[in-house]
Design brief:
- The protein is α/β, with parallel strands linked by helices and 328 residues long.
- The protein is built from eleven helices and 13 strands.
- A five-stranded mixed β-sheet has the order 1-7-6-4-5, with helices on both faces. A four-stranded mixed β-sheet has the order 8-13-12-11, with helices on both faces.
- α4 links the parallel β4 and β5.
- The structure holds acetyl coenzyme *A.
- The site of acetyl coenzyme *A has 23 residues, from α2, α6, α8 and β12.
- Acetyl coenzyme *A binds next to α2, α6, α8 and β12.
Length: 328
């Protein structure tokens, strides 16, 4: 049976950095409050005039370059995002054109919030295994700065912009590549993290804008609880499915929402924090971009070695959550 492997990773990071101190000039917050509660010190914010597909294309180009693959041979592009360039067409089709990927290949977006990248990885893995596509780009990209209420200190300090990408290809080596993926959702929690207006339920109007209903609304405490519980359970499921134990894991690439959430997952799964790659301090929460961005940094820093066992896990709006086990 054909297996599937990640053959390249890349990221796209906006140049502009906004520190906690800078934020504390516009909202009633402080560097110490944000660092203590979240671990976040700064985040990158995309400059006006650019959109999700610009960042995503940069990440995709870097992933192709690192894999030594001509973008023209990419036959499938999957973009996980809740901040697309526009409601339609998909951000993936913009990326296809900008990247110079194969016209006539497949390109689509998926909506699973912070779990979007791992959902995309699962779909891309299935495409490759059944031989439907041979060069699949899975991208997580967010420009959350465009849907954040910058006067709401409860949310604006948490998020950042960015993109991460991986390139998938067939692989025959037994026991290597994507070992398993695990996807979950619970629609009973649709209102703990969401953007109420701008869709078919509350189409954009002067009233929805005046009431700030195009911005992210969040029940932070509930999200926190659910994230620790479900990311931990999903990570354990990934280990169990492969007959592995916590001591077999070299790196956990967890969704970078908040250092305390990651610490909670570490404790529940029984994998020490030294085996979690962390970059939430420099990026904030970039939703679907966070896992592939962290993975790309870990690869670039040569922390991940051939044969290492990696666990990915993430949870976000939906609630939707997911995990994956990968043998590098
Ligand atoms: N600066 C200073 N004070 C603040 C800030 C801020 N940025 N934000 C809230 N506060 C205040 C509140 O107003 C409140 O004040 P009060 O006691 O006078 O009413 C106090 O701090 C405590 O507020 P809580 O919301 O109860 O603080 P909590 O300890 O729950 O921390 C936080 C809030 C950091 C958002 C936490 O709930 C959390 O991490 N939740 C997870 C949210 C998350 O990561 N969301 C990302 C999207 S989902 C995902 O990616 C998994």
């Amino acid at each position: 049976m054909i297996g599937c492997r990640i053959i390249g990773t890349g990221r796209g990071v906006p140049a502009r950095v906004v520190t906690n101190d800078e934020l504390s000039k516009t909202v009633d917050t402080s560097d110490s409050w944000i660092v203590e509660r979240t671990g976040i010190r700064e985040r990158h914010i995309l400059e006006p005039g650019l959109a999700a597909s610009d960042l995503a294309t940069e990440a995709a180009r870097n992933a192709c370059r690192n894999a030594g693959v001509d973008p023209a041979t990419v036959d499938c592009i999957i973009v996980g995002t809740v901040t697309p360039d526009c409601p339609f067409p998909s951000t993936a089709t913009f990326v296809q054109r900008k990247l110079g990927a194969a016209a006539g290949g497949c390109a689509f977006d998926l909506s699973a919030a912070c779990a979007g990248f791992i959902y995309g990885l699962s779909i891309g893995d299935a495409f490759v295994r059944r031989g439907q596509f041979k060069r699949v780009l899975v991208i997580g990209v967010e420009v959350l700065s465009r849907i954040i209420d910058w006067t709401d200190r409860g949310t604006c300090v948490l998020f950042g912009d960015g993109a991460g990408a991986v390139l998938l290809a067939p692989d025959d080596a037994p026991g290597r590549g994507i070992l398993s993926t695990h996807l979950y959702a619970d629609g009973n929690f649709t209102d703990v993290l969401y953007q109420p207006a701008g869709g078919s339920r509350e189409p954009p109007s002067a009233a929805t804008v005046a009431e700030k209903r195009h911005f992210v609304k969040m029940n932070g405490r509930e999200v926190y609880k659910q994230a620790v519980r479900n990311m931990a359970a999903a990570s354990k499921a990934a280990l169990d499915a492969n007959g592995l134990s916590p001591s077999d894991v070299n790196w956990v690439i967890a969704h970078q929402a908040n250092i305390r959430i990651i610490e909670g997952v570490s404790e529940r799964v029984g994998i020490g924090m030294e085996r979690f790659y962390i970059n939430v301090d420099r990026y904030g929460n970039t939703s679907s971009a966070s896992v592939p961005t962290a993975l790309d940094e870990a690869i670039e820093m040569k922390k991940v070695k051939e044969g290492d066992l990696l666990i990915f896990s993430a949870l976000g709006g939906g609630l939707a959550w997911a995990s994956a086990a990968v043998r590098w």
